[in-house]
Amino acid sequence: MSYLDDILKSRRDTRHFTAEEIPDEVINKALQAGHWAPSVGLTDATKYYIIRSTEVKSAIKNLFLEYNKKAEALTDNPEQKEHYKSLKLEAIEEAPIGLIIAYDRAVLNQFTIGTVGSNEAVKFSSVCAAQNIWLSLTEQGFGMGWVSILNYYQFKKILDLPENIEPLGYFCIGKPATNYDNQPMLQQLNWKQKSEVPDVTEITNVLESVVSNLQINPQSASKDQSDFNTLLQEKIDSKTKPIGALGILETLALQMGHVFETLNPKIKSPNIVVFAADHGISNHGVSAYPQDVTRQMVANFLEEGAAINVFCKQNDITLSIVDAGVNYDFPTNAKLINAKIAKGTQSFLHAPAMSETELQLCFEKGKSIVNAIAETDSNCIGFGEMGIGNTSTAAVLMSLLTGFPIEECVGRGTGVEDEKLIQKQNILKKAIENYAGQTEMQQQLAYFGGFEIIQMAGGMLAAYDRKMLILVDGFICSVAYLIASKINPNIKRNAVFCHVSAEQAHQKLLNYLEAKPILNLDLRLGEGTGCAIALPILKSAEAFLNEMATFENAGVSKK
């Protein structure tokens, strides 16, 4: 066995350290080894922060302890929980030196060779640097431990790291106090055994993938429903009230009767589907929040802690969460519909957000998700979304598909301040100016679209085909509806616009669509919350139509 093999085999995730100080030349040599690591497109994006301060270490330790409680709660097995608590998973305060290895996502502001397939390639370069540092420290007789059980948003805040700097984690460095009999700690303590050999499979065949083309403006058969329309309107007008006295409830009752094709419409098994995805444009600082919040919020949905969870429970609505393209690998056992196209779109500032094949896949995924929900005997579906940066994507699509200037389509999104709002407008304006592609909608959607927005559009088209009532949430969902309506204008018959958002472009878009929203509550949260809040009003429309007495059977005189 070579000396390099010995180093590779003996590298450990160290958790126990002596109090021995680390000479500067050891750290400098290790960091130089990190600098020598491969860097995608020669971005040189890896950054390092050294921590020796007791105060800073203590603050980071508190972050660990807070998040570690969440980790403990992930198992209901008492024995496993106690075993977990006994593990030594960090040495933040004990290790002489703390190191933050991070990458600068601002390098994505320029076209970078090697990142076209995945923005994560920049992150992977920093992981290579971390491994080099680890091996260098091992060779010098020192060790390092990776601490990742942290809330990274708070982590960046307390350390005042720039918005564009994304840490891989916190690394503890020092002289190892034990080698665990030259085994990984988790193996030595019988938490889990490492396999003896690598898992290798040879691939010898290529599976041909067939994606159907998008059909624009399909011809739909129009049925003569004049007799049914008359009967439905007469039923509404015969209720014990002046004609039109229930206002929008009468409009909704009429619409529901048409959609369900019955004089006695009833909403069955309502379902709100939240589509989540990340956007490459978020790397350019268009949001008040970092991209990782998309992943954090999906986890919050799954833990039933978000606003949409509360409102769905309140109104007995099934909630479905879709990973349309989040920049994260969720566990395969998560209560999540996996429709991931990729780990986020590319930044449309310099390149297409997605390929035309990915665009078609989005439509197909969205349709298949809704078709599966329709098979559960659901006839009412609401659409919600989550994705840091998606108001930027929606604004550009709105501008291109309506002809409105981009300045009239851009809003504050997650709450950006005035200066950042101007920066957001300028970035999106530049992106549109940079576009040299075709003017056909399909090419524009591929260049500027978001995975969750296109999947919602596909889902809405399927919901129309399945004769479902379509609940449209706020600004981003309305842009998805705009796309769907350009493909099939008849979809308007099934669409209920639940509210007008506080996002400044939403009212303008609703006017363009000639749509009248049910509510105006200054909402701008997304997640489908407007759909959940509006559903009781739809149920009221259903109730009056099916249960309210008529003039005749109540013995009340008509006008």
Automatic annotation (TrEMBL):
Keywords, A to Z? Answer: Cobalamin biosynthesis, Glycosyltransferase, Transferase
- Outline the extent of the Nitroreductase domain: 8-175
List, from the UniProt record, the residues annotated as the active site of this protein: 527 (proton acceptor)
GO MF terms held by the record:
nicotinate-nucleotide-dimethylbenzimidazole phosphoribosyltransferase activity
Q: What is its EC number?
A: 2.4.2.21
* Entry's transmembrane regions: none
The parts of the chain that form a coiled coil are none
Record's Gene3D superfamilies? 1.10.1610.10, 3.40.50.10210, NADH Oxidase
Transmembrane helix recorded as keyword: no
Q: What reaction is this protein's catalytic activity?
A: 5,6-dimethylbenzimidazole + nicotinate beta-D-ribonucleotide = alpha-ribazole 5'-phosphate + nicotinate + H(+)
Please state the pathway this protein functions in, per its UniProt record. Nucleoside biosynthesis; alpha-ribazole biosynthesis; alpha-ribazole from 5,6-dimethylbenzimidazole: step 1/2
Q: What is the role of the protein in this entry? A: Catalyzes the synthesis of alpha-ribazole-5'-phosphate from nicotinate mononucleotide (NAMN) and 5,6-dimethylbenzimidazole (DMB).
By sequence similarity, the record places it as follows: Belongs to the CobT family.
Among PANTHER family, the record links this protein to: NICOTINATE-NUCLEOTIDE--DIMETHYLBENZIMIDAZOLE PHOSPHORIBOSYLTRANSFERASE (PTHR43463:SF1)
- Give the protein's recorded name: Nicotinate-nucleotide--dimethylbenzimidazole phosphoribosyltransferase
Q: Which gene encodes it?
A: cobT
